[in-house]
């Protein structure tokens, strides 16, 4: 019996478990998925919780609900991968052998990497919204907050869903307008980037949106510490930004098991061929999602598009053929802009976000690089698609490779 092992039962791992179980002969292949946590989180929903639009129950389900019949689900912490001998060693010493391995261990926030971030004000005046605990705590804070300096800062890149910080400040603008407090709340967006986003054209459009909403932008801010006593963040070149409420996007790192396995870089992201999505160290190890060190967004859409490439190339490897699929870095992100509207960007390694219509040229119904109500509805609809289509490895109407139809170059 040949063995396929998948590390991580988040978005990527669950998609692959469903796809491979449908494809591989059960009499020949044993499939195992390993994860230390029972609960699956719909992470895009964390954005909505501080503003009272979603509750905890709207973003959680048991992981076991999405693991297909015929796949072994092991709940355990993983110690390390022994790539030389094709073994996964669990925390309790149990050894799982594999012929092929898919690493989809995701990414974690590490607030303790920044001096003072996880200090006395943590989840009191300093919050994250990239965890369920942080988003709930921030929601409770906003219920009674009367205003002041609201600062959102990005500690460093890469981060999960790079548009989420922008969405947050635009949502906050609408939220405090609706509560009649906007004139009492100064909103500041602090980033290590030179603009609102990584891609120049999108950065200009999104930066203009922030300006229209009277949201201050402080670029090129390389965060050194959070001063809890003085209630300010301080950069390495001694710039200071005071806050009454700090919403921070902490440093992100991969799973520590990657470092223990000598599979990754100094941030514990797996060293990955950005086109084939194979480990650069072992051809029988494939990498999916946020765990990879590829130069694209750590976002759910990337996992979806990359899963098609991993699936095809894994099947090539199983059948002893050269890999045929090539990942182009395709990413597609809805951006909530507040007041029932949203924007949409679609890009890859080589092409930055462009204006136009999506997915059908001239028809849409979604508009690229512009605010529309349909884009907002697309964001809301995605939660249903995520639970009922995406995780189950079903076919989606959008191809994994980015196409130019409907996009305007000028």
Description:
The protein is an alpha/beta fold and 410 residues long. The chain folds into three domains: 2-108 and 253-318, 3-Layer(bba) Sandwich (FAD/NAD(P)-binding domain), CATH 3.50.50.60; 109-251, 3-Layer(bba) Sandwich (FAD/NAD(P)-binding domain); 331-390, no CATH class. The chain contains seven helices and 24 strands. The strands form eight sheets. A five-stranded parallel beta sheet has the order 5-2-1-9-20, covered by helices on one side. A five-stranded parallel beta sheet has the order 11-18-12-13-14. Strands 6-7-8 form a three-stranded antiparallel beta sheet. The chain is globular and about 65 Å long. It has helices at 11-23, 132-144, 164-178, 200-212, 256-260, 300-318, 373-390; strands spanning 2-7, 29-35, 39-41, 60-62, 71-75, 78-82, 87-90, 95-97, 100-103, 108-109, 126-127, 148-154, 185-190, 216-218, 223-227, 232-235, 240-242, 245-249, 252-253, 285-287, 331-338, 341-347, 356-360, 364-368.
Features:
single chain; 410 residues; alpha/beta; FAD/NAD(P)-binding domain; 3 domains; five-stranded parallel sheet; 7 helices; 24 strands; 23% helix; 26% strand
Mean pLDDT: 95
Which CATH class of the largest domain?
A: Alpha Beta
Which radius of gyration do the C-alpha atoms yield?
Answer: 21 Å
Pairing-aware structural class of the strands and helices? alpha/beta
**Helical run tally:** 7
Distance between the termini: 56 Å
Strand content: 25-35%
Order of strands in the sheet with most strands:
5-2-1-9-20
Number of DSSP-assigned strands? 24
CATH architecture of the largest domain: 3-Layer(bba) Sandwich
> Given the C-alpha coordinates, what overall shape results?
globular
User: Main sheet?
Assistant: 5 strands, parallel
Low-confidence runs? none
């Amino acid at each position: 019996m040949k063995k396929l092992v998948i590390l991580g039962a988040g978005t990527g791992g669950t998609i692959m478990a469903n796809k491979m179980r449908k494809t591989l002969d059960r009499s020949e292949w044993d499939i195992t998925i390993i994860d230390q946590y029972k609960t699956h989180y719909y992470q895009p929903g964390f954005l909505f919780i501080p503003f009272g639009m979603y509750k905890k129950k709207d973003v959680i389900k048991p992981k076991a609900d999405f693991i297909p019949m015929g796949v072994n689900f092991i709940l355990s912490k993983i110690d390390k991968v022994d790539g030389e001998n094709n073994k996964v060693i669990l925390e309790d010493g149990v050894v799982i052998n594999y012929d092929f391995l898919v690493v989809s261990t995701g990414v974690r926030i590490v607030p303790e990497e920044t001096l003072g971030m996880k200090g006395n004000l943590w989840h009191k005046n300093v919050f994250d919204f990239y965890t369920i605990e942080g988003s709930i705590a921030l929601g409770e804070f906003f219920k009674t907050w009367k205003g002041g300096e609201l600062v959102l800062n990005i500690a460093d890149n890469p981060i999960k869903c790079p548009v989420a910080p922008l969405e947050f400040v635009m949502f906050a603008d609408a939220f405090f307008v609706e509560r009649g407090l906007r004139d009492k709340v100064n909103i500041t967006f602090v980033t290590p980037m030179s603009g609102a986003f990584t891609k120049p054209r999108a950065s200009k459009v999104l930066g203009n949106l922030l300006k229209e909403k009277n949201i201050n932008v402080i670029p090129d801010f390389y965060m050194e510490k959070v001063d809890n006593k003085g209630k300010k963040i301080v950069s390495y070149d001694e710039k200071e930004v005071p806050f009454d409420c700090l919403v921070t996007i902490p440093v992100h790192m991969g799973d520590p098991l990657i470092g223990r396995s000598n599979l990754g870089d100094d941030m514990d992201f797996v060293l990955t061929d950005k086109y084939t999505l194979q480990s650069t160290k072992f051809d029988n190890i494939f990498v999916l999602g946020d765990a990879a060190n590829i130069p694209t967004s750590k976002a759910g859409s990337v996992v979806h598009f990359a899963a098609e490439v991993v699936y095809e190339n894994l099947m090539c490897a199983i059948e002893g053929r050269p890999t045929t699929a090539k990942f182009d870095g395709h990413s597609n992100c809805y951006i909530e802009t507040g007041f029932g509207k949203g924007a949409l960007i679609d890009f890859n390694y080589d092409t930055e976000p462009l204006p136009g219509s999506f997915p059908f040229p001239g028809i849409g119904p979604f508009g690229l690089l512009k605010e529309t109500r349909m884009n907002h509805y697309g964001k809301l609809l995605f939660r249903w698609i995520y639970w009922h289509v995406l995780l189950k490895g079903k076919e989606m109407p959008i191809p994994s490779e980015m196409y130019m139809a409907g996009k305007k170059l000028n």
